[in-house]
TrEMBL record, chain A:
The lineage of its organism: Bacteria, Bacillati, Bacillota, Clostridia, Eubacteriales. It comes from the Bacteria. Coiled coil: none annotated. Pfam families: Fer4 (PF00037), NIR_SIR (PF01077), NIR_SIR_ferr (PF03460). This is Dissimilatory-type sulfite reductase subunit beta. Residues 222-252 form the 4Fe-4S ferredoxin-type domain. Its cofactor is [4Fe-4S] cluster; siroheme.
Automatic annotation (TrEMBL), chain B:
This is Dissimilatory-type sulfite reductase subunit alpha. Keywords: 4Fe-4S, Iron, Iron-sulfur, Metal-binding, Oxidoreductase. The keyword 4Fe-4S applies. Gene3D superfamilies: 3.30.70.20, 3.30.70.2500, 6.10.140.1420, Sulfite Reductase Hemoprotein, domain 1. It comes from Dehalobacterium formicoaceticum. It comes from the Bacteria. The lineage of its organism: Bacteria, Bacillati, Bacillota, Clostridia, Eubacteriales. Residues 267-295 form the 4Fe-4S ferredoxin-type domain. Pfam families: NIR_SIR, NIR_SIR_ferr. Its EC number is 1.8.99.5. InterPro entries: 4Fe4S_Fe-S-bd, DsrA, NiRdtase/SiRdtase_haem-b_fer, Nit/Sulf_reduc_fer-like_dom_sf, NO2/SO3_Rdtase_4Fe4S_dom, NO2/SO3_Rdtase_4Fe4S_prot, NO2/SO3_Rdtase_4Fe4S_sf. The keyword Oxidoreductase applies. One of its GO terms (molecular function) is oxidoreductase activity.
Amino acid sequence: MSRTDLGPPDYKEMLPPVIKENYGQWLYHEYLKPGVMKHVSEKGDALYTIRIGSPRLVGLDTVRELCDLADKYCDGYLRFTSRHNVELLVSNEANVDPLLAELKQKGMPVGGTGNSISNIVHTQGWIHCHTPATDASGIVKAVMDDLYDYFTHDDLLPARLRVAMACCLNMCGAVHCSDIAILGIHRTPPRIDHTKVSKVCEIPTVIASCPTAAIKPDPKNKSVKVTEEKCMYCGNCYTMCPAMEIMDPLNDGIAILVGGKVSNSRTAPGFSRLAIPFLPNNAPRWPEVTEAVRNIVETWAKDAKKGERMGEWISRIGWERFFDRTGIPFTDKHIDDYIFSIPTFRTTTNFKW
Amino acid sequence: MTERKTPMLDELEKGPWPSFVTDLKRAAEKNDSVKDLIAQLEQSYEEKKGHWKHGGIVGVRGYGAGVIGRYSDEPEKYPNIAEFHTLRINSPAGWFYDTKTLRNVCDMWEEHGSGLLNLHGTTGDIILLGTKTNELQPTFDAFSDAGFDLGGSGSGLRSPSACCGPARCEWACYDTLDVCDNLTHEYQDEMHRPMWPYKFKFKFSGCPNDCVASIARSDLSVIGTWRDTLRINQEEIKNYANSGMDIQGRVCEKCPTKALTFNSETKELFVKAEDCTRCMHCINVLPKAVRPGKEKGATLMIGGKSTILRSAFLSWVIVPFMPLEAPYTELKDLIARIWEWWDEHGKTRERIGELIYRLGMGNFLRAVDLPPVPQMVKEPRANPYIFWQADEVIKADEATK
């Protein structure tokens, strides 16, 4: 019988000696080149970190290759970041350049530090989720291919760029505070299978799951009915009840939100706001999505002051100018009509043309 | 087993970014379930539609969490992924690994599952992607013997996560790894046997840069900060100035409270301590010269979550400053009070932030015994609809006495 409630492995045993010896005693760090950081401790010890991009969804061959690299150059230690990057931890400076050369030869991208795009935090999508409006890994691959130079360079963008992708409104990727959020959306109400509802769903829970009170009991059918004009297609009812199918290949697609961040640096953390309400699901490479993201990134890169995150740039120039400069049309879809809409309305005569 | 041409997925092997499709194909050479997975995914790409059935409860002995049931909706066509469940494995704090451990993960997963994994899931677990129902217990047994355990899922505590903290960052204002590890071990029951209204997440960031997005993605955000003043090394300020850094423009003018002044003649930087809000900007730009203060701890914030159901919330300040030293008794006592109130009042699938919004921050603060302080609000209310407590008003019978 296996043991239960062990908890996670002891992180202390996973740390390379240079970290154990300098734990809590780091003094400063510097970026030596894109993707290469040097941390120096109060004792004068140094740790070199090489950051590489990863598809996150990996097979054992890739993980073993990473282990081979860590054994060869890093005394057998590596870590992963909150954005799915891999960090090879080098304590011997002489190993840095040979490691970089081998990574280059293997085609593994080094970067993601300083003023660059880091890896895209993302969800499962069609590969393994039961409620997706789109795929996640495929869009991430297409967008990162397109923005590759912004990963491997740290002098092309005004500030860091954090992109996140979630394949439906459940937002397992919590994309709502990203410089650019790529979000799978549904656009049509759930289709109810009345023969299944009473068998597989708990009707009061389904009714309570609707944030707009669009779901009502339908006692005649021992089922529920949906007031379609109230539904905003969040899919929460489907999460509670498999008989409320929400996926719709004809209408599902992508929304793009911009200008959010989590860091407290300079300005407070804030939500991403809707820039593009809908783009089609054109697998396998989503050209409309990659083009839209590139347009936003390059307009920001051209227009922002040094050090200005996407949201800081937009608040300086104003949303009127954002739509103007990016050429993105402003529509009725951009005006909020959900719970906390009122504070987003303009309540001053001060605006720009 | 279905082998078919995959012209759409093949397109995703092109381009410089590492391709998950290449990883899938390599894994398929050793595992028939991945062959079916690729075929089903190609079908999803053609039809623009997912092909996983809704839910399904599976698990391992003694646990109510950590395993996510997954079934193909075309099991006759793709028999090897008729069952293709996920196990969430709780990662070591900070996602540090030695290769012996990671190779062991590979060996075990090669024996028991598809050989596909996420490093890591968005909550921070190692995601083992795809195995059959009868392999779940043997997989868990192997991982357990190797010193691993399952992570959280469902309406319980989700696997807490932490930034790299003092292991590799000079800005960590508390030991994020130790707090994360300590609390994860403390709350094994809450994680493995879900019994709450809904999920609850902890994320531990060592400083206000918040590298694990604690403020946006955790019900209780623990974000490192300091109470005293910035430490400035004037020699290094001179070095930055001499190397051409525009300290006035890039640091002082960007300071949100204009708390910094730069003397361009002496090349010295000064902070007006009482105006500094500890945003990290000057430290980020001048890492060799400016450091957080010495009186370190954390700001505790509550309610962060994404949009489902009643809009996304960023976490709200409830404790402006708490020193965090093992065994973290003050933090754990507060967590116990928060969970007790949420457990008592929360509706099904109501996150703590939504419950606070429904019942009021005042009620929450009184219930968990936290004193109101101005640091909790951006500004006071603009309406006079105040809930007065019974002991705050004069009762008629008392007035006549």
